[in-house]
Amino acid sequence: MAQEDYILQVKNLSTWFKLDYGMLKAVNDVSFSLKRNQTLGIIGESGCGKSVTASSILRTVTTPGKIVGGQILYNDGKKEADLTKYKPDGAEIRSIRGNEISMIFQEPMASLAPVYTIGAQMMEEILVHTPKQQRDKKKAKETCIEMLKAVGMPDPEQKFNSYPHQLSGGQCQRAMIAIAMVNRPKILIADEPTTALDVTVQAQINDLMKSFQKQYNMSIIYITHDMGVIAEMADSIAVMYLGRVVESGSAVQIFKHPVHPYTRALLRSMPVLGHKTTEHLPAIEGNVPVPIDPPDNCGFCTRCLEKMEMCAHVVPQTIEIEPGHFVRCHKFNPAD
Q1: Is the pTM higher than 0.90?
Q2: Is 141 helix (H, G, I), strand (E, B) or coil?
Q3: Model confidence over 261-312: pLDDT tens digits?
Q4: What are phi and psi of 147, to 5 degrees?
Q5: Can the peptide bond before residue 64 be classed as cis, meaning omega within 30 degrees of 0?
Q6: Is the dihedral of CA 244, 250, 255, 261 positive or negative?
Q7: Which of 189, 161, 156, 155 is nearest to 72 (CA)?
Q8: Given Cys at both, which of 98, 167, 231, 257 links 171, Cβ 3.0 to 4.6 Å?
Q9: CB count, 10 Å around CB of 283?
């Protein structure tokens, strides 16, 4: 695929946190690509590094966290820039963050400022990315109310003047989407956007994002631990475990031909329509280790039912097993 078909390419990204008791390698040599007008699903258990990856792209990782290696190549259609070269508080990244790349957070009540109205927070998102001489508060307010209508907010004029605590959970999530979408970004990062919502509202929020994607030719990075949601939303998938991408490919490749033991274990743990409710779903034994000074091995080897001796001593390399389908596992590396 031509280079210009990708709007974002993450190459060998590492984001580590220097702690008193060791180096926490939250993101460790991660690579993936996001195509224009498509959705990339990033899947994995809690603690796998999904949210830190998103924060790294937006350059919002706070001390003691630091990007220690890799590239984040953003191509807006005119030029390509490596976002790792921008200062986290510099003008270059601030012109992109919230404008060309926006984010919907997992907990809207915790992410929305409680002392400002929804309208004030939306207005700020517009005005901060508008040159002073071109700022028009009346026009900005009209744009905000139009976006609140677009996200299905009931009585948008009233909600514009409401505070977050006056809205329901679903309405707060719609407000978060409205804030993220008000500048019509080229990339929307959705970090567990429907976790705290009931099933009906989850479906409405996902449909809303797909609608905006078509309307604005937007690319989406959808972060979740829910394989069912990813099956519905994603064109391509990156499976993360312990700070690394262990398998990636198209949604068809991942769901129809999963090869990494972790990916297969995740899929086996999904409920299947028609199974008896008394049947137990197979669980992945153990927990995700904390990646503080991790040993040089396959991080999944302590939980893997297919491990070999070398898995405990050597980090597997990423190889392409078919066009566009990558896996990080010793079973598929002919050199091992």
Answers
A1: yes
A2: helix
A3: 999 999 987 766 555 655 677 778 888 889 999 999 999 999 998 999 999 9
A4: -70, -40
A5: yes
A6: negative
A7: 189
A8: 167
A9: 9
CATH class of 3-100+187-331: alpha beta
Could you give the CA distance from residue 317 to residue 29 in angstroms, rounded to a whole number?
A: 11
- The edge-to-edge listing of strands for the beta sheet with 65-75 is 22-35, 6-19, 65-75, 80-82
d(CA 204, CA 189): 17
Taking residue 109's Cβ as centre, other Cβ atoms within 10 Å add up to: 15
Q: CA-CA distances (angstroms) from residue 6 to 34, 118, 267, 272, 326?
A: 6, 33, 28, 34, 17
Domain ranges across the chain: 3-100+187-331, 112-184
Cβ neighbours of 313 (radius 10 Å) = 11
Question: 142: Cβ–Cβ under 8 A, 6 or more apart, which residues?
Answer: none
Rounded Cα gap, residues 189 and 174, in angstroms: 15
Distance CA 245, CA 190 (A): 18
Paired tokens of 231? 């099956």
**Over the stretch 66-100, which tens digit does the pLDDT of each residue have?**
999 999 999 988 889 999 999 999 999 999 999 99
Within a 10 A sphere around the Cβ of 143, how many other Cβ atoms? 17
What is residue 277's predicted lDDT score, i.e. its pLDDT? Answer: 59
Q: Rounded to the nearest 5°, which phi and psi values hold at 92?
A: -65, -50
Q: Where are the alpha helices (DSSP H) in the chain?
A: 50-58, 91-96, 108-111, 118-127, 137-150, 156-160, 169-181, 199-216, 227-233, 251-256, 261-268
User: What are phi and psi for residue 137, nearest 5 degrees?
Assistant: -65, -35
